[in-house]
Each structure stands twice: as C-alpha cells, then as structure tokens.
C-alpha cells in the first residue's frame, strides 16, 4: 500500500480518536454539570440546558432521562412521564442512563396516578434484569395485594422471603393474608416474627389483637391494640377495635372513651371513620345518651345515607329530635326515669306498690287504686309496663304483660311506650283488659 494512503488512514484514525475524546470530555463535563445542579436542586437551569440539547437531537436519552428526573423531583409527574418513556423507546443505556432506574421512576409515576397494572409491568421488567433482588418481588406482590389478587401476591411475598427471610414487610403482608384466610396460628407466627426482627413494627400488634379479639380474649386484645395505636396508619382502626373489645366485654363506658379518642384522628369520612362513628352511636344508645348517638348517625347520614341502619335509627328517634319531653324521658338517668314513671302513675290516679327498672329501659310497676272514702272497699291491683324504646312493640310484649297480670292478680294492665305499637299488638289488646299508650299519649303525660 502506498505510503500516502497509510498517512491518510492514520490521520483519519487520529481525528476520530480526537473526536471521541472531545465528545467524552464534553459528555463528562455535561454530566458533572447536571449532577452539580441536581445537588443544588437547581432544576430550572437543568431543564433549560437539556431542552437546548433536545432541540439539536430529540433522541438524546441522557437529556430525556435527566429532564424526566428534574420534573420527577419537582413532583411534576405528568411532564416527567413522557421523558422516561422516551428513554425506554430509545433503548440505549449507559452508566449515566440506567434502565432499572428509568423503569423504577416510571413505576412510581404510575403508582402516583393509581395505574397499578402499568406500575406492576415495570417492576416485572425490572425483575428480569434483577432476578435476585427481593425488593422487586415485594413490590410486585404489594401491587397484586392492592389489586385484591391475594393468592398472586402471596407467591411474590414468599419469593421475597426466600431471598430475604427477615424482610418484615413481606412477613407482615403474609400475616394479613393468613388472617383473611382464617388461619390464626399462621397469623400469630408471622406477626411475632415481624416484632422479633423489628420491635418497633407496631402495626403487627394490630393483627395480634384481631386474633385475640376473634377468640374473645378481650384483655389480651386490648393490650395489643394499645401498642398498634402507635402506628399512625393503624391508629384509627386500633381505637375502633379497642372500643369494640371493651363494649363486647361489658365495659361500655371504657369502650365509648376509646371511640371518642378516635374522633380526633378522623381526617376524612371513609369506611374506617364511618365504622367508628356507628359503633360509638351504638355505645351511646346503650348508655342512654341518645342525643349524642343521634349526632353520630346524622354525621354518618351526611356522608352515606344508606349506611347500615342509620336511616332507620334516625327515623326511630325522629320524635326525640323534635319533642323536648320525649327527649328528656329517653335520655334521663335511671333514677330520673324512675321518678318520671312514678309521676305517670300518679297522673293515672294510682299508687305504686312495687317498681323495678330493667336494663334502664323498662319499668315494671304493680299499682293499686288510691284510698277512697269507702274504706271497706277492697282496692284492686293494676299492672303497668313502661318502655323507653324507639322500636315498634309487637304482640309478644302484650302477651307478656297479660302473663304478669295473671301472676300478680292484677285485674287491669297498662302498657306505655315512647315508640309505637304494631297492628298485631293493637288488635291483640283490643279484646283484653289492657290499655295501650304510645308516644303521643306519653308526651301528654310528660307535659
């Protein structure tokens, strides 16, 4: 080969090498500049610089990646998304533009927009690149769990635990899945493992409490819920279940206090807050604090009018909301209720011989006629049953009153309620020595 050809070839090689060095220098300088601006959080400067690069070459994956990164850090996910997608489309990766990092960013953006399936696809693609990384198995399992495919989720959590048996998040999710599958022993094992690895993993106590509550071990359940209360995510649920455990075990007052604690943590009316309000209303109703119960039912009704029997409860206590006499009667203490019953007996021109209060809502009274001027006349007994309830009373109540009349020798019966009587009750009483007084007549007595 002639020497002048060799000289030309050598010159071309040298020039190419110099071009590569210059490009490498500018690329390195460009990367250092971008990294420095990122550290300074000077995203506006980065965006201006990279947009100029894209005007020259729209297939510059470096520019698209760092534009996406800048928008991502500014929480401008909508603008970040197309740049990361462009990087995937260009499909040219370097040490500065990493495929795993790009797909992670895409997944996070999809999660932000609640596009769970799209996010899951990105994590599955990452798993092909990083098959031995337990974190990505967990992320795929977590999305399956959020999509309510718990069997699929469990398979990925198990794989994550095979790679890292101490991964508490996977252990916790498996414990939740076991609980939903009614496997209490496995739930206890998983949650106790979580706490052994990380004693500060407070939400594990919640499911320990649920297992104990389901088995009616109320004391142990309450102790666990007090610990899970520390976790802000489980705080409202913990107070709800702690209140429920107290109410179910007979400590209604303590249950109400726990549920009232929960009210201060309600930030929006969601299923958890509605459940707490409803249980609190039940506790108030049981404790004869009907006004407070109505307040909770009304709050529930504003968010979800058809929630359980809220509509029926408000209808039952309609008169209580409008009638001050009935309201006082329904909310009075047991001793005050007894005093009201005695005054009603007096208005009926009768005398109390024996009076008992059952469950704070039913007064059973044996009475006799008042002393008359005819001293030799034998006074007859009458039996009175007074109910402070909102539900409609059926004929079974009338039958029960008739039986008590027979046992006590009463010749006449009176049944009074703050609610109403069913048609069957009215028809049954019509042919028997018993008078019925509903809420309207009761209101007149109370006046």
Query: What is the count of β-strands?
Result: 5
* Overall geometry: elongated
**What structural category characterises the helix and strand content?**
alpha/beta
CATH class of the domain at 332-371 and 378-446: Alpha Beta
Strands side by side in the biggest sheet: 1-2-3-4-5
- Number of H/I helices: 23
Oligomer: single chain
CATH topology value of the domain at 332-371 and 378-446: Trna Endonuclease, Chain: A, domain 1
Largest sheet: 5 strands, mixed
Overall mean pLDDT stands at 88
Q: What CATH architecture of the domain at 332-371 and 378-446 do you see?
A: 3-Layer(aba) Sandwich
Helical percentage? 55-70%
- Terminal-residue CA separation: 126 Å
Return residue spans where pLDDT drops below 50 for at least 5 consecutive residues.
Answer: 14-29
Strand residue content? 5-15%
Write the element-wise H/E pattern from the N-terminal end onward.
Answer: HHHHHHHHHHHHHHHHHHHHEEEHEHEH
């Amino acid at each position: 080969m002639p020497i002048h050809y060799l000289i030309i070839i050598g010159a071309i090689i040298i020039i190419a090498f110099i071009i590569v060095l210059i490009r490498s220098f500018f690329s390195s300088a460009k990367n250092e500049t971008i990294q420095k601006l990122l550290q300074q959080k000077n995203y506006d400067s980065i965006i201006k610089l990279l947009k100029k690069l894209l005007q020259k070459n729209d297939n510059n994956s470096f520019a698209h990646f760092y534009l996406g990164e800048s928008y991502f850090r500014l929480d401008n996910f909508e603008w970040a998304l197309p740049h990361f997608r462009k990087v995937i489309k260009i499909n040219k990766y370097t040490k500065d533009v990493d495929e795993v990092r790009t797909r992670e960013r895409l997944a996070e953006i999809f999660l932000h927009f609640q596009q769970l399936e799209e996010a899951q696809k990105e994590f599955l693609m990452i798993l092909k690149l990083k098959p031995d990384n337990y974190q990505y198995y967990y992320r795929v399992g977590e999305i399956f769990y959020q999509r309510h495919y718990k069997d699929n989720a469990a398979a990925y959590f198990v794989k994550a635990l095979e790679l890292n048996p101490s991964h508490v998040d996977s252990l916790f999710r498996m414990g939740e899945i076991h609980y939903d599958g009614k496997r209490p022993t496995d739930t206890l094992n998983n949650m106790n493992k979580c706490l052994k690895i990380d004693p500060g993993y407070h939400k594990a106590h919640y499911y320990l409490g649920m297992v104990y509550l389901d088995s009616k071990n109320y004391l142990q359940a309450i102790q666990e819920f007090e610990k899970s209360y520390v976790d802000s995510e489980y705080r409202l649920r913990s107070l709800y279940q702690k209140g429920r455990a107290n109410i179910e075990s007979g400590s209604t007052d303590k249950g109400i206090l726990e549920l009232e604690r929960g009210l201060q943590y309600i930030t929006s009316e969601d299923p958890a807050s509605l459940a707490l309000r409803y249980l609190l209303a039940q506790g108030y109703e049981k404790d004869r604090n009907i006004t407070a119960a109505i307040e909770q039912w009304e709050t529930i009704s504003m968010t979800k009018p058809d929630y359980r029997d809220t509509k029926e409860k408000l209808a039952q206590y309609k008169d209580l909301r409008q009638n001050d006499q009935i309201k006082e009667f329904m909310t009075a203490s047991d001793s005050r209720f007894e005093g009201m019953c005695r005054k009603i007996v007096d208005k009926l021109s009768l005398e109390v011989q024996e009076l008992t209060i059952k469950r704070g809502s039913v007064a059973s009274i044996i009475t006799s006629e008042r002393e008359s001027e005819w001293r030799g006349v034998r006074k007859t007994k009458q039996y009175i049953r007074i109910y402070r309830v909102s539900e409609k009373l059926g004929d079974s109540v009338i039958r029960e009153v008739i039986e008590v009349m027979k046992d006590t020798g009463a010749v006449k019966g009176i049944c009074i309620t703050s609610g109403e009587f069913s048609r069957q009750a009215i028809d049954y009483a019509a042919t028997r020595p018993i008078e019925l007084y509903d809420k309207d007549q009761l209101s007149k007595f109370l006046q």
